Amino acid sequence: MVGMTARTLVSCTFSNMVVRQHMNMNDGKIEVLQKGVFSDVRVSHTLRLDNNAIRLVEGPIFENSSYVYHLRLGYNELTTLPDDAFEDVTIRLIELRNNKFHNYPTALNKQQFSSIDLRSNSISSVIKSSFEGQTSLRHLILNDNKLSELKAGVFDHVPSLETLYLQNNEIDRIEAGVFTASLTRLRHITLVNNQLRHLPPFEGLPALQTLYLNDNLQLRTMDQNTFDQVADSVTEIRMQRNTFYCNCEVMRALYQIRKVVSGGQCIEPPAASGTLFDKTTPTSPTLLPDYFVTRINQTAKLFLCSGANVQGTTSASDCDITMTWEHPQYLYYDLNDTTSDLFGVDLAESVGCNSVNGTTSNSTTNVTKCGTSWTTEEDCLHNTILYNVSCTSASAPTVYNVTNSKTVQFIPVEPGTLYECNVVLHYNGTSSTFSETVLVQIQDAQGKIPATKSETNLWILPIQYYDFSAYHPDFDGLHTINPTNPSYVASPFGAWLTASANPATDAIASWFRSIPATNQLLSNTITLQNNATGGNNKYSFIDDTFYPLDGLGFRSESQRDCNGVLHNFGFVS
After folding, report:
1. Domains of the chain by start residue, with CATH
2. pLDDT tens across 133-143, in order?
3. Model's pTM, two decimal places?
């Protein structure tokens, strides 16, 4: 049955069948699967429906307790599935790769799959409920989608998960609490080629063996405890082509995996720029591991700690940014000469501010820096440590300040702008590199937060545009008029357009059909935002500058708007 020419498979096309091996209906022209196509069908291995043109599934396609070990629906045109698509059937492995899904199909929650393959779609988000009921899921393949973040608890419903493939997405944030002790069987994670900026702790994960983080070109910082709970089990961590702000937190985290890490290097601070990471054995207990001294014989004091617990907020007036942080507990981490273990070098002690009865304990060394009778340790640090705070944006000037305080406010800032803010510690002519980046979004002039790619409360729908030439008789073309007193003209077609009774002669019949000699069909998506009011969801699309086909199809053909800007106006959707 390979290469079927039928466009629609109707109900009960296949019934009362037992297939011992494979049932192959791939590489055909199937477009529609009607309800109950497979009734009392048992396929011991693979049911292949891949490489067709399936765009529509009408309700549950299986009936009468069917069974399929491996269902392959990849390389089709599916954008959605009805929630009951897989009722009344048992399926172990499902493949939906290379379709056109924009949202994770909730129909998958009707089954206890052991493997789900959704690679190469356009899925933009997954949430905790996406995997509800998937307690048997062992392999989850979501690479080559458009995921932008992972929220805490997203994998709480998949305790049997063993392998997780997330490479080639757009993930720029992983919340703490994503990888937790509930994932006791997870042994392989791939996050290659995303947009990660910071690594939170990988909590628990007692079975983790391999972790691929390479080619996250924006990855700069990590929590000092990122690898603490996986250091005993993991055998390989890849970080090729990642570049780090090598503060003390990064240095400590890497020390925990010094025997298994490969790739990556420092770009900050300048004195450590180019330092490479690679798994080797330390040559001396008094030096950092070799992977940290490849370029020059670095010392721990180069990797100072940055400001801790950095927070960025904006007030109700939303014309400002307030940054707060704490002194780090340690100034840097060093190796114990006898145990070769890392220990933190206390900040106050390092700078001579550890107070005893109101005076510094090292008045001989630090008297000129700190004085000899500071009231509190905090007062001493206030007069010894400086912080450089900066907030940058791609569309607005950078704001920054140097202070000995632990808070700073920037007024005014640019409306509608997303700022990336960092804190750098300065002491005695030496500076740390940047802290973890904090994102602060400023409302626009209308008091709204611009939509971001990480917004999960969206509907992303497929849309088809039919583009016509400006010279087509059904479209206005190049008319330059200034209408006055326009009047409403009722549609001759009533509330809804209906199929033409004479499609061969009616010009309007070509508006919503692909006719190569008349129009050009262009497919895309449209994003509806949830403007919820009173607890009721209301999804809408509002855009005062909607020109989706500029530069596409027939292009502008010299058509201009009232401001003289070229646009493509001649399309329907």
Report:
1. 1-123 (3.80.10.10), 138-303 (3.80.10.10), 308-441 (2.60.40.10), 457-483+492-573 (no CATH)
2. 899 999 999 99
3. 0.72
